Amino acid sequence: MTDVLDTVAGKSGELVLRRAGEDFEVIANGVFLMDTRNGESERLLVSVAADLVPGKARMLIGGLGVGYSLRAALDHPGVGEIVVVEREPAVIGWNREGPLKDVHGDALADERVTVVEADLVKWLRRTEERFDALCLDIDNGPEWTVTDGNAKLYQEDGLDMLATRLRPGGVLGVWSAESVPSFAKRLRARFGEVRELKIPVPQGEPDVLWFARR
User: Fold this and answer.
1) d(C-alpha 14, C-alpha 11), whole Å
2) Which of 74, 116, 126, 157 has its CA 20 to 30 A from that of 109?
3) pTM given for the model
4) Which InterPro entries is this protein grouped with (predicted)?
């Protein structure tokens, strides 16, 4: 049985938070976006990126989701300060004060975490901040974006912009629900070192993680 807990008009359309048994689901414009059933690949996105950076990493997480990536970053000994950029205020609220708070043990209350309510693409263009690890999980993949505006982030100009936001030796991590060979090719054209991981999921094609470093 599925129960609708909240429905809001988000910045990119209707957002629905619902409970299915013991799990939570977020639906955007009628399309499934995320849930709390597994989260292995979301955790690996930040933990592998942190492993690739020496010392205490200053990390940017693009997309709060259900908080799995943030929790993994806080639990990783190689991560220091964390900036989370999330566009939807409802998602922040569900994680900070709502039912998703218990999913990650109230991770937003940790003093190492700064939450920025903003469109990630626009924020990256105007900020001068730089990071040791930049982890993106704002879409279902480079060719399956939540909004049309996000698509440019995965093109040549977007990758160049992301590279400028990395400190020397910094790592870019990207999450996807599917393999995208054309995106992997663009990554390899701009970064000297690219690693691709495929994470099996209970149903369907494996999730895919890319890690790139110049």
Assistant:
1) 8
2) 126
3) 0.95
4) SAM-dependent_MTases_sf
Helices 40-51 and 68-75 sit at what angle, rounded to 10 degrees? 40
Q: Which two tokens stand for residue 2?
A: 């599925």
Closest CA to 133 of 58, 43, 63: 58
List, for residues 10-65, the tens digit of each pLDDT value: 887 899 999 999 999 998 888 888 899 889 999 999 999 999 998 899 999 999 99
Bridge pairing between strands 113-117 and 79-86? parallel
The CA distance from 62 to 42, in Å, is: 12
| pLDDT tens digits for range 144-166 | 888 888 899 999 999 999 999 99
Structure token digits, residue 125? 């263009």
Q: C-alpha distances in angstroms, 9 versus 13, 27, 97, 127, 199?
A: 6, 12, 18, 27, 33
State how far the Cα of 108 lies from the Cα of 67, in Å rounded to an integer: 9
Structural fold of domain 38-213:
Rossmann fold (3.40.50)
